[in-house]
TrEMBL record:
Belongs to the uroporphyrinogen-III synthase family. Residues 1-185 form the Tetrapyrrole biosynthesis uroporphyrinogen III synthase domain. Pathway: Porphyrin-containing compound metabolism; protoporphyrin-IX biosynthesis; coproporphyrinogen-III from 5-aminolevulinate: step 3/4. Its EC number is 4.2.1.75. It catalyses: hydroxymethylbilane = uroporphyrinogen III + H2O. It comes from marine sediment metagenome. InterPro entries: 4pyrrol_syn_uPrphyn_synt_sf (IPR036108), 4pyrrol_synth_uPrphyn_synth (IPR003754), UROS/Hem4 (IPR039793). Pfam families: HEM4 (PF02602). SUPFAM superfamilies: HemD-like (SSF69618). GO terms for biological process: uroporphyrinogen III biosynthetic process. One of its GO terms (molecular function) is uroporphyrinogen-III synthase activity. This is uroporphyrinogen-III synthase. CDD domains: HemD.
Amino acid sequence: MPTIEIQTIPSTEELDQSILNLENYQWIVFTSVNGVASFFHQVYALSRDARSFKGIKIGAIGPATAKALAERGLHTDYLPQIHTSQGFVSGLKDQDVSGCRFLLPRADIAPKELADEITKLGAEVHEIIAYKTVPPNEAISQGKQMLLAGEIDIITFTSSSTVTNLLSLTGDEQPAIKKAIVACI
């Protein structure tokens, strides 16, 4: 039972201007496959492509994100050994990013930690909302009924959003979750 749905942000002036003025950035950091897909949805809508990223260093938090970038014609210049925001910033410390301008397309609920830590290295970070995570509308009632009936044996959480949304969905009936094995990635 999915507990999150990814929604591309409709075109906004801020998002469009960021894409139309990519030459103002030295770095663009993508934190997820969803961020890549949503950002490029708008890149293509504005009749742009991989050529618009010429001269910009591309960062990806993990290998799946780097693969999504490669599928769109972009080489990842920096992929940390530890695939977390902390791992990304730790590796950036070996590079001189002081004075660089970073563009950080992200989810509406993404923590500010990555931007804050890059800023501490002397860089300027422009965060842009590229997508939203929302509870899905479909299959919720059936999934909730199955959970409450004890018919779900294993629950796998893929992000903090999936945890938040399931807890919101179950409300006062959260003890039903205790009947299942819970795994988090």
